[in-house]
C-alpha cells in the first residue's frame, strides 16, 4: 500500500511499493538546495562553462582532490546534473536535437576511417 509520511521540519515522503528510485524534475534550484556546498565551488572554476571533468582550473575537482568534498558526493552531484539535462531534453526540442547531434558526431568520430580500405 502507498503511504504519505510527513517529515518534521517540512516536506513529505511518499512510500510507494515497487518504486526503485526518485529524481529531480527540471529544477536546478532543488539541486542547489541538496548540494549547497558544491555550487559555490563550481562558481570558482576558471571557466564559466566548466564541465568539471578535465578542464584546467576546476575548483570543484580541486576540492575533491583535497578531500574538502567527498568523491561519492561529487559523483552523486554529477549524476543528478546529467539527470536534469536529460529531463530538460524531454521537453525542450532544441536541447534534444543538440544532444542528438552531439551523439551523432561522437559516433562518427569513433568509427574507423574507410580510406585506404579495399572495397
Major β-sheet strand ordering: 1-2
Global morphology: extended
What letter string, H or E per element, gives the SSE order? EEHHHHH
- Provide the residue-averaged pLDDT: 81
The oligomeric state is single chain
Summed up, the helix count is 5
Low-pLDDT segments: none
Q: Largest sheet, described in full?
A: 2 strands, antiparallel
Strand segment tally = 2
| Structural class by secondary-structure content | mainly alpha
Radius of gyration: 20 Å
Distance between termini? 63 Å
A few lines on this structure:
This protein has 119 residues and is mainly alpha-helical.
Question: What does this entry look like structurally?
Answer:
With 119 residues, the protein is mainly alpha-helical. The protein is built from five helices and two strands; from the N terminus they run ββααααα. Strands 1-2 form a two-stranded antiparallel ribbon. β1 and β2 form a beta hairpin. α4 crosses α5. It starts with a strand and ends in a 9-residue tail after the last helix. The model has no long low-confidence stretch (mean pLDDT 81).
Amino acid at each position: 500500500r502507498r503511504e504519505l509520511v510527513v517529515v518534521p521540519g517540512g516536506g513529505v515522503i511518499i512510500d510507494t511499493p515497487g518504486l526503485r528510485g526518485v529524481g529531480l524534475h527540471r529544477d536546478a534550484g532543488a539541486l542547489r538546495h541538496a548540494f549547497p556546498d558544491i555550487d559555490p565551488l563550481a562558481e570558482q572554476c576558471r571557466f564559466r562553462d566548466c564541465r568539471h571533468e578535465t578542464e584546467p582550473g576546476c575548483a570543484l575537482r580541486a576540492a575533491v582532490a583535497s578531500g574538502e568534498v567527498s568523491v561519492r558526493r561529487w559523483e552523486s552531484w554529477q549524476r543528478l546534473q546529467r539527470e536534469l539535462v536529460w529531463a530538460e531534453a524531454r521537453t525542450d526540442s532544441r536541447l534534444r536535437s543538440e544532444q542528438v547531434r552531439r551523439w551523432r558526431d561522437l559516433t562518427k568520430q569513433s568509427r574507423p576511417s574507410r580510406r585506404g580500405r579495399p572495397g
